[in-house]
Write a structure and sequence with these properties.
- Helices cover 34% and strands 16% of the residues.
- By secondary structure, the protein is α+β, with helices and mostly antiparallel strands.
- The strands form nine sheets. The protein has a three-stranded antiparallel β-sheet, with no helix packed on it.
- Strand 18 and strand 19 (324-326) form a beta hairpin.
């Protein structure tokens, strides 16, 4: 996948790309500089090193170290020289990490007030940094409240930190392995991020086989294990909460979708069989289907027009050892052609809102065939089907607020939103993600087709758009 780098630089640039019908294809990139612990300019470093060398040379010649009994005048001159070198081109203050060299300790006298305890410093060792003077024991880390004795320290705003404390507080951790995200060979913090969920993780996890949820595409954290379906797909616990596993569980949702279409004055008269199937059965059915357009990414739904025998799921599976689904009961279902549509197949194990959006999409395929729409281009047919899937998701997300999304998206006045909308914030967030997948799809048929169809429906209404498609085979502009 075309995932983008994330490098710290004070602000982030975010670029979202699309994903196919329920399948992510591109990801976010944003760049920020990492905070280097060596931010002094070259001239500053040379000045400070020169001052240190001079002081060490003088002390070696005298055969003794600096102490409080040394000549006060010479010490004051040395302090002045060091202070001037520290102040030269000092790093600007800002609300981000700024690393400065730990100020040097030297003897002093005179009347000075410690910026920490507000008491007089008097004769003895003191620190001169951050435009203030301090007792050595009063210059403390804002995080752990212990004295800073390192040569270097970190800052955010006007608060000093140990480098280790600053890293613990502000260095990003991987949402997968929970470790600090490493720096690259240029010293920059580099990570990958999901464009919708903003899940951050080390670049290595894209190559180490870390699985993703087959529904929401979030990467599996090492401290939370996803459920494994029998066909190898992984399902996160949030998506598992509302996952539809067999035909019986899907029937109420099927009735909701039919009622949604009826509210748009698009009633589907025929009773079309709806079957939940495994991935292999769906792929086999797709190979046997002569009609229709198939998505480039993994197929999750299919509207059949041919007679086939399909293996469908008869009973909800149970969870076995290792969070795996076992005891899947399947059975053959013989499809007989009684009209233009023989069945709608949906991949099992997906959350209710994703299953419903796929079903709303396939139901539109069925409606077009039953109403005599023929020879539509993939962009027009898949595009208008995605419009209906998007409208249904809107109705579900907004159902708790009393909004009637279907009526505002079409020219009809009698429409009904689903009675079984999401009941939690996590459901609404999932619904917004599935909408985002439709909106940002980059494929020509599903992505460009949806955007063209949505513009037409917003401008002319659903009924007028469908009438124009029937007459011309294109969207009105």
């Amino acid at each position: 996948m075309g995932w983008l780098n994330k490098i710290f630089k004070g602000s982030s640039n975010k670029i979202s790309r699309g994903q196919h019908h329920g399948k992510q294809t591109d990801h976010m990139v944003s760049n920020e500089w990492s905070r280097s612990f060596d931010v002094l300019s070259e001239s500053e470093t040379e000045d400070i090193d020169h001052a240190i060398a001079l002081s060490l040379s003088e002390e070696q010649q005298k055969g003794k170290a600096i102490d409080t009994n040394s000549n006060l005048e010479e010490d004051e001159q040395l302090a002045k020289a060091l202070q001037e070198s520290l102040n030269a081109e000092s790093p600007p203050r800002q609300n981000s990490q700024v690393d400065r060299p730990f100020p040097y300790l030297f003897p002093s006298g005179g009347f000075r007030i410690c910026a920490g305890c507000k008491r007089e410093i008097g004769n003895g060792r003191f620190l001169n940094c951050m435009d203030s003077v301090w007792h050595p024991e009063c210059f403390r880390c804002h995080a752990c409240d212990k004295p800073i004795t390192d040569y270097e320290f970190s800052m955010t705003g006007d608060k000093p930190y140990h480098k280790s404390c600053y890293k613990e507080l502000y260095h990003p951790r991987c949402d997968v392995c929970k470790n600090f995200i490493p720096t690259n060979r240029n010293g920059l913090i580099e990570y990958r991020a999901h464009p919708f969920w903003m899940q951050k993780y080390c670049p290595s996890h894209e190559q180490d086989g870390t699985p993703r949820c087959c529904s929401c595409e979030r990467m599996e954290p090492q401290d939370i294990k996803y459920v494994t379906l029998d066909d190898g797909r992984k399902l996160c616990l949030e998506c598992l909460h509302s996952a539809i596993m067999d035909n019986g569980e899907c029937q109420p949702l099927y009735l909701d979708i039919r009622e949604f279409y009826e509210g748009l004055n698009m009633k589907v008269e025929q009773q079309i069989p709806l079957l939940l199937v495994e991935r292999q059965a769906l792929n086999e059915a797709m190979e046997g289907e002569k009609m229709g357009h198939h998505h480039v990414a993994e197929t999750r739904g299919l509207c059949l027009s041919e007679e086939q025998t399909v293996s469908t799921i008869l009973r909800r599976p149970i969870f076995g050892p290792g969070d795996r689904i076992i005891d899947m009961m399947t059975g053959p279902y013989r499809l007989i052609r009684q009209c233009e549509v023989t069945a709608i197949l949906i991949l099992y194990g997906l959350p209710r809102l994703l299953t419903g959006s796929i079903l709303a999409h396939e139901m539109m395929h069925a409606w077009l065939r039953l109403k005599g729409f023929r020879r539509l281009s993939p962009e027009v047919e898949e595009g208008i089907c995605q419009v209906l899937a998007h409208m249904w998701l809107d109705s579900e997300i907004m159902s708790g607020t009393g909004s009637n999304v279907a009526s505002t998206s079409s020219s009809t006045s009698s429409s009904t939103s689903s009675k079984k909308g999401p009941k939690s914030e996590s459901d609404r967030k999932l619904g917004e993600y599935f909408k985002n997948q439709i909106e940002s799809d980059t494929s020509e048929a599903y992505g460009d087709g949806f955007r063209a169809g949505d513009r037409a429906v917003q401008r002319y209404g659903l009924r007028s758009t469908l009438d124009h498609i029937r007459l011309t085979g294109t969207f009105p502009y």
